[in-house]
Amino acid sequence: MELFDTHCHLDVPEFAADRDEVLVRTRDAGVTRLVIPAITEAGWDDLLAFCRSESGLYPALGLHPIFTDEHRDEHIDRLRERIAQERPLAVGEIGLDFFIPDPDRERQTELFEAQLAIAEEFQLPVLVHVRKAHDQVLQSLKKFSLPGGIAHAFNGSLQQAEQYLELGFRFGFGGMLTYERSKKIRKLAAELPLEHIVLETDAPDMTTAAHHGERNSPEYLPEVLAALAEVRGESAELLALQTTANALKLFEL
Known about the structure:
Blueprint: E1 3-5, H1 19-28, E2 31-37, H2 44-53, E3 57-61, H3 73-86, E4 90-97, H4 105-122, E5 126-131, H5 134-141, E6 149-152, H6 158-166, E7 169-173, H7 183-191, E8 197-199, H8 221-232, H9 236-251
Parallel strand pairs: 1-2, 2-3, 3-4, 4-5, 5-6, 6-7, 7-8
């Protein structure tokens, strides 16, 4: 089985000591492709260099909503320039996070929509981070003509999911799916159309139940697949094939 981790921050310092070993174990686990989304402008160069250094690693460039204080207006101009130069797979990680303490909603929305405009210009899918802001994210997305994207770590309602579906989005499921207590997420994974589900780890964050309290790793993606098979009552082989095909189609690989 070939698996596709559609959201993994393997470039961050948490992997500095053993990144090569993690990548070997990840490939041994059958995870052959990984999308590495950016977080801040300062990390773009290292992220791009890392993705060039190994096959099966694909960059996404963007400005993460949690780090709004670090983003500058000129970073939007640089994002457009770098996307024109590098032609990454997607624009991301972008979005809105109203869960953090005292979020600057206006600034987050301004940065989000500026990046959506770039995604529209280059017709790239978007990797969207959303917490406590699904309705606001959907409102912004509907202003642009995009080739879809991924609602990363999706935990919205079925009604919200239907709106994402109309916009051509996939839904990313990761480590939280492996926890029995994650009843809402497990119900969503069971009920959403399989053609719109993709797998992700969000490593080093949001690890699986078997590794609770530890650093998450892309090598644990088969555990997410097993949980998806459990909640859907379908074979892991079928789900591996379909979720990988869903990612390949979205990213035009």
